[in-house]
């Protein structure tokens, strides 16, 4: 029987790294069940990640819970209402960025990867575009909820080449009119941990989070250990292959149910 998934704690982290500006953007709306991580690129003055996140949020605030509101947009019978509304929210955000980019040269345009979550009761709908990540931690297991759409995944579907320029997204908001966000839906269980992250977050953090979860600490200590583990990995400058990778922007949110 379906119910409302209780959010017990949320921890967020943002790092500019050695980039001149922070192009990634993180949005968490606990009361509305909205969680977004966006990895911007291109013209930073357009703030594409921020613009896209705000467009998704605005759409979800207006349309959530109203089936008729999705009818002028795309309605897929195999998605839940939450999945349909989230799909259309990203289509809306893509149009916003496409309008911003209109008439600009390629070097003047801005785009963004994004992974967005929308919680409806105990159903979590996710939308994925480009090279962001979402992980689920349940009991003693962790898994990818979305697969990043990057050149590295094209070269190596096992994900071992996720470093450097190979992580360029193959799709992104603001780059094409015919954007098709990938929608994934799953039921949340008490005790689940969910993370939303941009590509500046090392994949090694997955194992660190699982180690912390298995210790069964109180929430305050678990959040503290999560932040410490993340700061440690970034200060070491470790990428997925142990190479120095401290230059990139990074954002992540951890939601504990």
Draw up the topology in text.
Elements: E1 9-15, E2 24-29, E3 34-42, H1 48-63, H2 81-101, E4 110-120, E5 123-129, E6 133-138, E7 141-144, H3 151-155, E8 182-187, E9 193-197, H4 204-214, H5 219-236, E10 250-256
Antiparallel strand pairs: 1-10, 2-3, 3-4, 4-5, 5-8, 6-7, 6-9, 9-10
Helix pairs in contact: 1-2, 4-5
Condensed summary:
It contains five helices and ten strands, in the order βββααββββαββααβ. By secondary structure, it is of the alpha+beta class.
Principal-axis shape equals globular
Radius of gyration: 18 Å
CATH class division: Alpha Beta
Total strands: 10
- Residue share in helices? 25-40%
Could you report the average pLDDT, rounded to the nearest whole number?
A: 88
| Strand adjacency order, main sheet | 1-10-9-6-7
What is the CATH topology assignment?
Phosphatase 2c, domain 1
Distance between the termini: 17 Å
Looking at CATH, the homologous superfamily is PPM-type phosphatase domain
The CATH architecture can be given as 4-Layer Sandwich
Q: Provide the β-strand percentage band.
A: 25-35%
Structural class comes to: alpha+beta
Give, in order, the helices and strands. Answer: EEEHHEEEEHEEHHE
Instruction: Return the domain count.
Output: 1
Describe the largest sheet.
5 strands, antiparallel
Total number of helices: 5
Low-pLDDT runs of 5+ residues are 239-245
Mind explaining what this structure looks like?
- The protein is α+β, with helices and mostly antiparallel strands and 257 residues long.
- The protein has one domain: PPM-type phosphatase domain (Phosphatase 2c, domain 1, 4-Layer Sandwich), CATH 3.60.40.
- Helix content is 28%, strand content 26%.
- The chain has five helices and ten strands, in the order βββααββββαββααβ.
- A five-stranded antiparallel sheet has the order 1-10-9-6-7, covered by helices on one side. The protein has a five-stranded antiparallel sheet with strand order 2-3-4-5-8, covered by helices on one side.
- The longest helix is centred in the middle third of the chain and has 21 residues, at 81-101.
- The two termini are 17 Å apart.
- Residues 239-245 have low confidence and may be disordered.
């Amino acid at each position: 029987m379906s119910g409302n998934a209780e959010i017990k704690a949320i921890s967020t982290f943002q790092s500019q790294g050695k980039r001149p500006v922070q192009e990634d953007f993180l949005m968490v709306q606990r009361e509305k069940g909205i969680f977004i991580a966006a990895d911007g690129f291109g013209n930073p003055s357009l703030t594409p990640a921020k613009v896209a996140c705000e467009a998704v949020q605005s759409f979800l605030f207006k349309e959530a819970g109203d089936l008729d509101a999705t009818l002028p947009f795309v309605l897929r019978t195999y998605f839940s209402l939450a999945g349909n509304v989230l799909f259309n929210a990203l289509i809306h955000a893509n149009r916003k960025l496409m309008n911003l980019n209109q008439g600009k040269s390629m070097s003047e345009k801005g785009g963004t990867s994004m992974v967005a979550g929308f919680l409806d009761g105990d159903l979590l709908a996710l939308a994925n575009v480009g090279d962001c990540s979402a992980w689920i931690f349940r009991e003693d297991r962790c898994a990818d909820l979305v697969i990043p759409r990057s050149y590295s995944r094209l070269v190596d579907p096992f994900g071992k080449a996720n470093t450097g320029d190979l992580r360029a997204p193959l799709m992104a908001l603001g780059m094409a009119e015919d954007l098709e966000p990938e929608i994934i839906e799953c039921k949340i269980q008490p005790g689940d941990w969910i993370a939303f992250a941009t590509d500046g977050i090392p994949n090694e953090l997955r194992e660190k989070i699982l180690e912390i979860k298995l210790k069964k600490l109180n929430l305050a200590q678990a959040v503290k250990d999560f932040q410490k583990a993340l700061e440690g990995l970034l200060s070491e400058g470790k990428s997925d292959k142990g190479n120095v990778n401290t230059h990139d922007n990074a954002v992540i949110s951890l939601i504990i149910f």
